[in-house]
Amino acid sequence: MTKLLIKGARIVDPASGRDEVGDVFIADGKISANNEKADQTVEAKGLVVAPGLIDLSARLREPGYEYKATLESEMDAAVAGGVTSLACPPDTDPPLDEPGLVDMLRRRAKALARARVYPIGALTVKLAGERLTEMAELSEAGCVAFSQANAPLADTQVLWRAMQYAATFGFPVWLRAEDRSLAHGGVAHDGEVATRLGLPGIPAFAETIALDTLLQLVRATGSRVHVCRLSSAVAVEMIRAAKKEGLPVSCDVGIHHVHLSEMDLGYYDSHCRLEPPLRSQRDRAALAAGLAEGTIDCAVSDHTPVDEDQKQKPFSEAEPGAVGLELLLPLVLKWGAQQKLPLAKTLARVTSDPARVLGVQSGRIAPGAPADLVVFDPAELWRVVPEALKSQGKNTPFLGYELAGRVRTTIVAGKVVYERR
Amino acid sequence: MAANPQLNANGELQHLLCIEGLPREILTQILDTAEPFTGVTEREVKKVPLLRGKSVFNLFFEASTRTRTTFEIAAKRLSADVINLNIAVSSQSKGESLLDTVANLSAMQADVFVVRHASSGAPYLIARHVKPHEHVINAGDGRHAHPTQGLLDLYTIRHYKKDFTRLTVAIVGDVLHSRVARSLIHGLTTLGVPEVRVIGPQTLLPAGVESLGVRVFHDMRAGLKDCDVVVMLRLQNERMNGALLPSAQEFFKHYGLTADKLALARSDAIVMHPGPMNRGVEIDSSVADGPHSVILPQVTFGIAVRMAVMSIVAGN
Question: The complex's ipTM?
């Protein structure tokens, strides 16, 4: 196995708070304490080396939606964005509700030898919200958690039983909080902008009512729940209180929701059609602050490649979602700068914190830890244009923006998997 | 936010998509231009040659008889060639995308597209993709806007009341689903109407409607007090019995316009309705046909206003 040396970098390790210039040695796919003779050297003077990003929500669109994106195109996008581990939601076609599908996905991902892929299994068969999946089997096949993705689970009885069952085996449940009937038919935050644009709204209490149900079921079942994609200020408050109470909950926010609000819909920009919807400026500020103080554990890309035909439609008919694997790093850096956070604390939300939620050893730079690393220039500016993105999806509200922070080298298990020349 | 897609580089009207964002000067220009066209309508030869040789395509992705007909009459009186396409029952049902439909029609040399669509914002998408010499006029998109209806309402108000800056205007009924209400509210606030009221039950008012610059009333009697103009909105059949309203009868009792409720408004108040009316649901026949009603003149003015809009955009 190759021995690798990253030379003269600013080493930022969010797990320990370490931030100093030095060398990182890699042997046998792991970070090594010894200064051994390297076979390959990455010159990193003036650059940052940090743990590779861990993205808790990235859709790879396989199986079933290969016309939107392929595993190969999206794994390229991941490593180009410095993402070395990603969790993929089960809303493929068919959904990840059978061990065979999960196994195939993992094998295909492994063969591509880029980022590590952690499949999230479907909580219910076909995500229909009626019958539980064989969670133990799925777990053996490699599922790290169970989820409904964006599919509603309308029947609270089924939700309760699913959480009980998952808790029995200690499987984490990852759920979005959205009341199905309140969200029904809505495409934008139920507020001033939706009123002006004449778009059917989704009120913020569609989230908080469902979140309250979830939290009560956590109390009842002891199930470990990760709440996905918070969108409202009140939900941040509720999570803060739940954590204070000692409930086993964690949560994340989509990086778009940290930077954008309903105002960005402009004249019906379908790239801003997201699930959950972009809410008010006040909600956006609360999400950004909640992420800074750690009430929100992680930021995710919620990467969703959508083909242009499905976006070139009237706003309410356009398919929701935005790509984000290649934007996660610069957008997190932008958020960290706005919050005046040190770099280590900024990066924690996409490295050590998601590693803790996933229960994996990566996400830190310490002897013996997996050598999943990203080398980047935090100051390098680049313009978000379709040609700059490796993802097959070019659907992002940030098209045309100039962002700071660009990946130079990505390393997974001690191997260089991406290098920008 | 991107530049206003309705205006060209010289600040002139390129497309008419929405009244919001149009400066007062353009609204006034449209109303002034419409004025002489009301005369054309009354002449024996009801035609002027302003759009001779131009093609107006009526693209109706949602069924409509009245609005489509008034646009057709307006275009013909301007001597344009009019092509009516009822797309609700043709290519879109065969799976063709909205933009493909427009690209195909554009290849047939259109000058003006008059668009009605069930989805809010659809005319914006079309306007982004047409050629520079093509113009889009929104004839109603989802709940969002119906700017020519808003303009004809403004024309009617100006005709009867002259000065916008002393008026109290009440808009009554289903504001939530109404593109007519949104367009009229923006027009009234732009032209300096000091008090615009919306009256309806909470279930039929959109979230944060106050942010449009209106006062909210749930009690119709309080809301009508001293009004100069009362605009009744149509209540769609499908909203009458369900989670929004218990029944048409109960709605009529509280929000239907009757002679005794109208007596609370100013004695010279005018009553408007965009049509088609539900007599006995939002308006009593004695009011609809009574001395305060200007509902039929609205229709006549509507043709003149649409002529004005088409001649202005196609002339720019």
Answer: 0.92
